[in-house]
Amino acid sequence: MVTAQTPTNIAVIKYWGKRDETLILPVNDSISLTLDPSHLCTTTTVAVSSAFHQDRMWLNAKEISLSGGRFQSCLREIRARACDVEDENKGIKITKEDWAKLHLHIASYNNFPTAAGLASSAAGFACLAYALGKLMNVKEDESQLSAIARQGSGSACRSLFGGFVKWIMGKEDNGSDSLAVQLADEKHWDDLVIVIAVKETSSTSGMCESVETSLLLQHRAKEIVPKRILQMEEAIKNRDFASFSQLTCADSNQFHAVCLDTSPPIFYMNDTSHRIISIAEKWNRSEEAPQVAYTFDAGPNAVLIARNRKAATSLIQRLLYYFPPNSDDLSSYIIGDKSIA
Ligand code: DP6
């Protein structure tokens, strides 16, 4: 039995659009921050026993089906790389060949609302791939494991690393070079504080429709993102918050513009999201240097990244003034106390 814990990640240059739906290959590179595991993470226990008669999985204590293609891809890819496991003290001996016949029980738990649009699938599939890899003594490194997690959910590949992570889109048709690498570890830019304003709603993914109908998506993938990736890598390297904030906000806004350019249009942000953007923009313009970056994924929750603790305190005061928790506008706040990890 193995238990692993994996945090979620928030993209600052977004992944939106696949060139291969089955292998989950993206149309552009993306960059994310991995959050502190104490706030938004998945804990997964995987167990194997000759007494198990089928693969089974429980998510937040409720049994879910493993028949979906994404789960099956991850299980198949890990099983194909399984190695012998031997522990004389515990009397355990499982050979490479045994793994194909043995069944698994998987129990996964999210410490945040699964349907809050906070990329629970990212933490979930990263944790699944990592835990299974450990159980089956898979020798692949984190980047190679990320290519397996990717087949569960694209954004999951970025959760195999802490700190700042880049998902390289890759060129190969079989997806072997579409994997995550760490740009900088969690200690690199310690000042940043992440505040997430949560409104609990479920989100649906419209990525496929965007690829089919949005001309802006084509333009973004070819002309905009490659340059932005280089600029973002530079901003992270130099801890340049002004550029980091400008790029993060612009990329989030363009992602939502792509959603609006999709037919039928997709609306992930709500009035509260728009008000939070206005407050952040106004505040940044009233200061000598930007104090906060905002980004929104496929849901209305604002992820706000403050340049340092002082800015975070001021940000939280503003948010509490305009949007008290448990109001119609907002359910709660999650504060990345130790910034990224
Ligand atoms: C808006 O990784 O959830 O959060 O690959 O279909 O599982 P699938 O999609 P998913 O998409 C996340 C999109 C995003 C932006 C991002 O995380 O880069």
Automatic annotation (TrEMBL):
Catalytic activity reported: (R)-5-diphosphomevalonate + ATP = isopentenyl diphosphate + ADP + phosphate + CO2
GO CC entries: cytosol; peroxisome
Enzyme class (EC, first level): lyase
Domain Mvd1 C-terminal: residue ranges: 195-341
Diphosphomevalonate decarboxylase-like N-terminal domain segment(s): 7-180
Predominant location category: other
Record's keyword terms, sorted: ATP-binding, Lipid biosynthesis, Lipid metabolism, Lyase, Nucleotide-binding, Peroxisome, Steroid biosynthesis, Steroid metabolism, Sterol biosynthesis, Sterol metabolism
Keyword Lyase among UniProt keywords: yes
Domain of life: Eukaryota
Enzyme Commission number(s) from the entry: 4.1.1.33
One of the record's GO molecular function terms: ATP binding
Annotated compartments: Peroxisome
Biological process, per Gene Ontology: isopentenyl diphosphate biosynthetic process, mevalonate pathway; sterol biosynthetic process
Family: Belongs to the diphosphomevalonate decarboxylase family.
Biological role: Performs the first committed step in the biosynthesis of isoprene-containing compounds such as sterols and terpenoids.
Protein name (Swiss-Prot/TrEMBL): Diphosphomevalonate decarboxylase
Provenance organism: Glycine soja
